[in-house]
Amino acid sequence: MAVQIDKPPGQYQSGQAGPAASEKLGDPGWAWAAYQPDAWQPWNLAQAGHLFRRAAFGADWDQLQQALSDGPQRTIDKLLRPQANIAAFNREHDEYESSTASSTDSLRAWWLRRIIQTPHPLLEKMTLFWHSHFAANGAKVKNARLMQRHVQLLRSQALNSFRALLKAISRDPAVLIWLGAEANRKALPNENFARSLMEAFTLGAGHYTKKDVREAARAFTGWFVLRGQLRYISREHDGNVKQILGQKGNFTSDDVVRIVLEQPATSRTLVRKLYRWLICETAEPDPKLIAPLAQSFAKDYDVLKLVETMLRSNLFFSRVAYRRRIKCPVEFALGIVKGLEGVVSTTQLAQDLADLGQNLYSPPTVKGWTGGRHWINSATLVRRHNLAMALLRGSGPYANKLNPWAVAKKHGCSTPESAARFLLDLFLQGDLGPDVRDALLKKIQTPAAADGDDPAGTLRRFAHEIVTLPDFHLA
Amino acid sequence: MFCNNKPQKSMTLEKVALVLLLAVFAAQSTMAAQTLPPANQWIPQDAVISLELSQPKALLELFAGEKATAAVTALPVYQKQASTPQFKEFLNVIEFLEITLDTDWRTGLSKLTGGGITFAICPEDTLILIIDAEDEHMLEQTHEIFLNIARGEAEKQGQPNRVESTQYEDVTTWTFNGKEAHAIIGKRLVIANRPEGLKAVLELRANGASENLTSKATYQAAKRAAGPDSVATVFADLLILKNIPEIAGLLEQSSNSPLAALFFAGIVEAVRDSSWLALGLHIEDNTLLFRASVDGKTVAPTSPVAFALPSKVGDGALPNLSVPRRIAALSLYRDLHQFYAAKDDLFPERTSGLIFFENMMGIFFSGRDLTNEVLIETQPEIRLVVAEQEYDPAIGTPQIKFPAFAAIFRLRHPEQFKEVAEEAWQKAVGLINFTRGQQAMPGLIIDRPFQGKTKYTVAYFSTSGIEDKTNLDSRFNVRPALAMPGEYLILSSTDGLARDLIDALHQETEQTPKPLAGTHSLVEIEGGQLASILEANRKTLIRQNMVNKGNTQEQAESATDMLISLLKFLDRAKLGIGVHEGLTRFRLELKLNLQ
Known about the structure:
Among the domains of chain A are: 179-325, no CATH class; 329-473, no CATH class. Chain A contains 25 helices and four strands. Chain A has helices at 19-24, 28-31, 45-55, 61-70, 72-80, 86-100, 104-117, 121-134, 138-141, 144-157, 162-169, 173-178, 192-201, 210-219, 253-262, 264-278, 287-300, 303-312, 329-339, 346-355, 378-392, 404-410, 416-428, 434-445, 455-467, and strands spanning 223-226, 229-232, 242-244, 247-249. A two-stranded antiparallel ribbon of chain A has the order 1-2. Chain A has a two-stranded antiparallel ribbon with strand order 3-4. In chain A, strand 1 (223-226) and strand 2 form a beta hairpin. In chain A, helix 16 (264-278) crosses helix 17, helix 16 (264-278) packs across helix 18 (303-312) and helix 23 packs antiparallel against helix 24 (434-445). With 595 residues, chain B is of the alpha+beta class. Chain B has 22 helices and 21 strands. In chain B, a hairpin with a 2-residue loop joins strand 20 and strand 21. Chain B folds into two domains: 13-215, no CATH class; 250-526 and 572-592, no CATH class. Chain B has a 21-stranded antiparallel β-sheet that branches. Chains A and B meet through helix 6, helix 7, helix 20, helix 22 and helix 23 of A and helix 21 of B.
């Protein structure tokens, strides 16, 4: 089965905006203006589901209903700045992690549990984004405590200042060990960190030279990671003049961070990357569309402001964005878990997600997870089906933590038929064409589907059918 | 459509009652009192496993007696559960039954099951349970109560036809849910999880002369082996069970793993060669004694697994060593030289792990041949000990507290081999230090202190410079030690356990230990000490439970506390395996702590 990522949205009306809206899609002024629902782009269940897929990891029924009642801007307010005591929640989970952080296996299990339970899912979504961006790999770092602190650092700045984040990353022992930059002597400057800083973290290829990397490496001399701790040994620092990206001076590591952030290519690269994460990964955005956001971002590198602009925009709620990303394995699995209001074994889930290609705490390359179509191939598709089956089976490693029938009953469904319609709305928000929808519902109405006295079993199978449809793999 | 939120209904009285029914008994009699043949004559011949509880009162007395009840109800975890609405509802049901049947639950249970309980697992997932009551009237009354409850529940769910009865010859059979089937015949209740199971029983009853479980030769042999005076007996048809892929896989494992081949030698071969397993249960005070045997031929002296056979009459594993805070101990009779010499037969696959092991041994033992120059120096008596650690606050306490473990070998020529072992051990520590040094991690420091007159070697991570010594890394659980008191060699994960073992061996040597003749494996587990180490790691266990099971903190606490409480009920478990009178026998002693 091939996932058709360009298919037009089914019941989704706003994606079929009128001709005027179509023409405006390339206009940055209209694209980044705040979305106001109207007859062409109404605020409906499909839009609410879209928002929660991108700004969170899916939603349960109550969250979707509340979003419908709140409207888009208030819902986005809550996603950006939730009322709950986030600091207390994260403190508690930091403590859970610390007490069992003997391996990255337990850390990834705790992170998944945090993602399921957090009152601030956007924060975790952005933490995952930065985790892929900086791509520190626990298997290379071989120190769970350092990896724990690394992800805590990502979380602390995930929606704050990229400037502060980058500076902290340049002194993060986990990142330095991962890049093989744990020793940087004057006599032999280590170029590994400087190269990654310019190529993967900020400017991108083509915006720097080998000489810039060599010179920047000299500015980073003196920094070491010894026994898991960052140390600065001043006698090992090269105090001579360096020339980096056109600037000349007796630069230190902080100066290098400042210089790369001053380059327009940095903000453009980051905005493009975030566009791909939050809006659309099927087509490269027009430079005209990116320019105003990049200019604004370069002023203060305020991530929250950038994310807010994107999430509130007309573009975000247009057909350019709708179902234009393939869910990463974490989004796929947690979409099921969140929808069914359960908490499952995250130790098992972390392993299953690793088998699907997303091993948390161990991004595969210096570029993180490539994502997009790379998530789907014949092997991973079968594994996604199997994982969905395992989650919904009601026995085995995930036990009976997810029960579609119980959730449907909780929300007022009294028959398998009404529960089936509920599940379609919960997971796909009516995106299916009438023919597919009818064919699915017909299955539940046949006597064979009645499964004796066990509507729970019938609904489990039905939920599995829904979450293995191509549409559900799209965010 | 989805707007009417309906609160989740808690466990209803009816549901609790149905659970009780399945767990214990029920039925209606259609017949007058009569003499019935033994229940095992109503079990089909193709039963794979049968359990016959001939003296249920003995078990009831132990597990439901006043002493046990007092011990259970005193548990904090019980008191916590008892305050939940579901538990209160359950108690209400019990109270209702007590009033209706005019008895207390203990007497009621005794009267309803006192004649014996027989349970069988047959092909096609068929389960049969036969309960012989002492009080026929009470049995009928109880069935009537459950029948009414089931009818009420069925009607409430709009399926009144779910509860129905059918006449099968002179017996009325019932089903409460369309799946299970049961009948009362005199004082006997027969329940099956599917109608076919009950039909098979009723056919055996009708044709008294037809073949049943008792006419099977393997069953008869197993019954004889289990002995006549058992409180309960179990028969398992191994010829069928060994065809189950999981069991077949387990039996094959020993040829894939050298460790499995070493530990399970003699046991796997005996089971592989057997057609039945018999188990008899005896009760002595607070001790449950299980005696099991299989009919497989004992291992021939020429077999590759003969290394696990005591070579002379009177030989066998030594008694386990006793040390403070002991959690578990294992004593084996295994000739390691003979074992490794037969490696090509025992585990033919040359895995990379095995090659690495041999290469490393070559380095540690300076090129000596592992089989003929190293392992030949050990005698067949091998012991392993696991104990809870005691931490010195001045050194520090790890956050996660691992038990200490040690292996004790008896040497053939201790004087010649001592330096060889010491050199190998110090090389291993050196290698660890070098590897850790490459990763800029702290290494182990070697010291050679005395315990009494025995000089031993310990390697440890220094905690000086660490401010918070109450929350150390897991590596601080390890202080590897090597000690060689007398003719023994101790390899221990901590110096504390090594010191305790030096003392224990001195004490043992003074008393001259007597081998357990014929026994090749002996395992002992101390329930209280196991509970103690789990309690010391309670916080970690709760957190692991949360992510492993997806439980809330409350659920995880409850599960962990329940486990700890249950372990506290176990004073000691002791399993001995050996060859006696030509049969491989297993003897498991469970001493309960009901204080």
